[in-house]
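Handout for the seminar on molecular recognition.
Each group receives one record of this type.
Step one: identify the two inputs.
Step two: read the structure output and locate the region that could contact 6-diazenyl-5-OXO-L-norleucine.
Step three: write two sentences on what you found, then compare them with the reference statements printed after the record.
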Amino acid sequence: MSKLLYPRSLFFISFFFILISGFAQTYAKNGMVVSDNEVASQVGVAVLKKGGNAIDAAIATAFALAVTHPQAGNIGGGGFIVYMNASGATTTIDFREKAPLAATSDMFLDENGKLIMGSNHKGLKSVGVPGTVAGLYMAHEKYGVLPWKELVQPSVDLAKNGMILTFTLATHARRSQEGASAFLKEYFKNPNGKLVDFGEVWKQPALAKTLEQIRDKGKDGFYKGKVASEIHKFMKANGGIITRKDLKEYTAVERAPMKGTYKEFEIYSMPPPSSGGVALIEMMNIMELANLDSIQFNSTAYVHLVAETMRRAFADRAEHMGDPDFNPEMPIEKLTSKEFAQKRYSNIDLERASVSDSTKFGQLYDGANTTHLSVIDKNGSAVSLTYTLEYSYGSQLGSPKLGFIFNNEMGDFNPQPGYTDRDWLIGTDPNIIKPGKRMLSSMTPTIVAREGKPYLVIGSPGGRTIINTVFQTVLNVLEYEMPIHKAIEAMKIHHQWLPDRLIFETHLMSPDTQKALEEMGHTLYGRSNLGRLMGILNSTEQGVFIGASDSSSPDGAAVGY
Ligand code: DON
């Protein structure tokens, strides 16, 4: 493990670690945290060692990521927790951002009713009311065991005393000096005004103060009092619409998980306002019907089948899904039923690509950053947590007095009501902007259970690709019995109905397969990478937890003890 990742204040924690990351898989007997940042994973494991449970560790890791992985770790965004305790009881916590009370369905349109391209992801109007602090606080109130303060303190220390800047963050810091927002340009400077570089200590005193408020006052430290007042003032002075009232009224929601099965396994994932759980279960149901024994893994026939499965699930997603509090009639049970999968499976032509119908559905481009963490504690309780700012560094905006970055999650709503095209836009009703509504998400934090106990804890960033990379990883483990790191690294593809193209990892799919898929009618589009998965497998036979952080995560690590 790299010494450079260690701030001095964490030395005492790391000293005692028995198990370290950096190998393809990390093995641990007593507990494990896998996240996009090694220091944050260590913070979580220190909490486990102190007697905290998986919820406590997830909370501490999430706060730490807000300091050490600011491109996506956050207190200015939102996300989801899926939790299964050691005896198999499951729940979820929805802390997705909400549209401000002053938001309207035409807020990103010009005078002709057309979307002003990019406006829904830009500026303070793109900011949803943040949910992270409320969600983590609710998780703690209901299921945590250690005192709240002990979970927030490590992130206060990291922000106040500083952390060693990783190479990745140093690259972002350098790049921020060209073309980033004024806030981001200052963000990576130390109080002496100097841009921090790789290997140097980076301090975030304003963020430390905000975190202290949260440490001392809990949820109210963010949604009421000094921090809320400053958010309100900052928004008002700079053209934003989030008010003190929006913050005061924000609540996280506990929801029953989406539940499905694949052979002998039970799958628990996030229900709406994420589309992840519904689409994942729909796709697993379809795959269960396919005769996978006769189709070779990653062959042309396999990729075609998977792509057609994705196409169908994403069409259903576009048509039906949105915030359940505003869409009480969503046909969730139907979409996740085995009968419905039969219907979807039966119209897949195994020889020929279908054509996505542009008169019905479309998809938006998704942003570049989100982060997932997986936790398991000594009792086998597990947390799967994905949260996001939408784009990398969200809106790139924030109050210098508060030191954290606001999301640009309003971009996840369907911006132009009623208008759907072949390329970018979906205009379906369930995900139109309304005051106080949560925007539809693709985040898919998932726990698979075997014999009623957590077996696989998994999730990923990647916008709409999240659903598909989680789907393929789950399938790789459950169907193909791959070790967790192989399942994570194996070639992934992505199809999201519209735009009608099959995205593949350029260096992982053979040219022959590419050609054969094109001959079947697919339009191919190469990308260097899909997914950044963080997973843990609970191998009860071997009595060990096995964790892996995707090699595409430069600072990520599975840490256990
Ligand atoms: O909630 C969602 O689906 C998106 N805001 C997630 C964005 C994302 O994953 C970008 N990351 N790579």
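Reference statements: The radius of gyration is 22 Å. The pocket of 6-diazenyl-5-OXO-L-norleucine is lined by residues 366-370, 388, 390, 409, 412, 441-443, 461-463, 466 (CB under 6 Å).
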